[in-house]
Amino acid sequence: MFGFGFALVPLYDVFCKVTGLNGKITGPSVALLEPVDSERLVRVRLIGINNEGMPWRFGPEEGVVKVHPGEMRQTAFIAQNPTERAMVAQAIPSVSPGEAARYLHKINCFCFNSQTLAAGERVEMPLLFVIDNALPSQIHSITLSYTLFDISPKGSEPPAAASADAAGKREGAI
Question: Most exposed residue of 9, 22, 94, 109, measured as fewest CB within 10 angstroms of its CB?
Answer without folding.
Answer: 9
